[in-house]
Specification:
The protein has 272 residues and is α+β, with helices and mostly antiparallel strands. The chain has a single domain, classed as NADH Oxidase (3-Layer(aba) Sandwich). It contains nine helices and nine strands. It has helices at 17-36, 56-65, 72-75, 91-99, 105-131, 156-162, 205-209, 214-218, 232-242; strands at 4-6, 48-53, 81-88, 136-137, 145-146, 151-152, 166-168, 174-176, 182-189. The strands form three sheets. A five-stranded mixed beta sheet has the order 1-2-3-9-4, with helices on both faces. A hairpin with a 5-residue loop joins strand 7 and strand 8. Helix 1 packs antiparallel against helix 5. The chain binds iron/sulfur cluster (2 copies). The site of one iron/sulfur cluster has 11 residues, from helix 9.
Length: 272
């Protein structure tokens, strides 16, 4: 098991270069360890990890679309860096949900278990970095969203785009080089990880050349549209209904049909 570190233009910074590289290696090692030995039933492919500086311009642009989104400085005074990690589900889990007429049990279990894994990764990173004199905070993997707007106050997916780990697709998910079927977490740190801005990279076929659109066809409730905004309310109502299928599991408002059985489920279809 290994992880991909997305650091397109690493700029060595004199005496701090080694520290930045060590920091990135440390973070990568912890995420890799949890992904390889997650406990429970869920299995993952190799994680993808990205780093970037926490600069004001990125959040000014984000808040133009989502004014309620927090800045790193509100969560961690003195914030200077962002870390994003993507845990791609195993092909078995993705295939099971693609074949299931409703939501596959494997997908629901993966959702629940990955909430725990992401929380454990966040806690472990905070603890280990603190031992190095680095302050860090990690937002919960889910449920921290405005129930009226149905928008997160801290979007792990948006942080993934900032770090170059992925880019938004027509399915409103973030597509990475390992696809979109998985879960994201992120961390704010008070040091600059020493990675220059990554180039914007399109990974959705529709955004790239106007083709595909399969995710729109797969959505059971018509929440995704070729030429209109994602209907969050319609999607959320469907997710809440799905929770009733799995009475023995903790809250499982899941669906995921827009993440499975698609060209972008397991890989970046534009880069293929
Ligand atoms: S299914 Fe096709 S159109 Fe939809 S997000 Fe994936 S690549 Fe883009
Ligand atoms: S999660 Fe399900 S309901 Fe929501 S957009 Fe995706 S396919 Fe549609």
């Amino acid at each position: 098991m290994w992880c991909w570190v997305v650091d397109y233009l690493y700029v060595p910074d004199g005496s701090s270069a080694m520290k930045q590289a060590d920091l990135r290696e440390l973070v990568c090692g912890i995420v890799r360890e949890f992904t390889a030995h997650p406990g429970g039933e869920t299995r993952y492919r190799s994680p993808i990890i990205g780093f970037c500086s926490a600069d004001h311009e990125k959040f000014t642009r984000l808040q133009e679309n989502v004014p309620e989104h927090l800045t790193p400085w509100e969560l961690l005074p003195g914030a200077r860096g962002l870390v994003s990690y993507f845990l791609p589900f195993s092909e078995d889990i993705v295939g099971a949900n693609a074949r299931s007429s409703l939501v596959a049990r494997e997908w629901a279990v993966a959702y629940v278990e990955t909430n725990r894994v992401l929380s454990e990764i966040g806690k472990s990173l905070i603890k280990v970095l603190a031992e190095q004199g680095i302050r860090a905070v990690s937002e919960a993997p889910t449920y921290e969203f405005d129930k009226a707007q149905l928008k997160a106050r801290w979007s792990h997916k948006s942080i993934a785009c900032m770090t170059g780990t992925g880019s938004f697709g027509l399915n409103s998910l973030v597509i990475t080089d390992a696809g979109c079927a998985g879960r994201f977490g992120s961390l704010i740190i008070d040091v600059d990880p020493g990675v220059a801005a990554s180039p914007d990279s399109e990974r959705c076929l529709y955004h790239h050349n106007g083709t595909c659109g399969l995710c729109v066809q797969r959505c059971p409730v018509g929440a995704l549209k070729m030429d209109g905004p994602f209907d969050r309310k319609l999607c959320y109502e469907h997710l809440v209904q799905a929770d009733a299928y799995f009475a023995d599991l903790p809250l499982t408002d899941v669906c995921g049909k827009c993440a499975v059985g698609l060209p972008c489920s397991l890989t970046n279809p534009v880069g293929r």
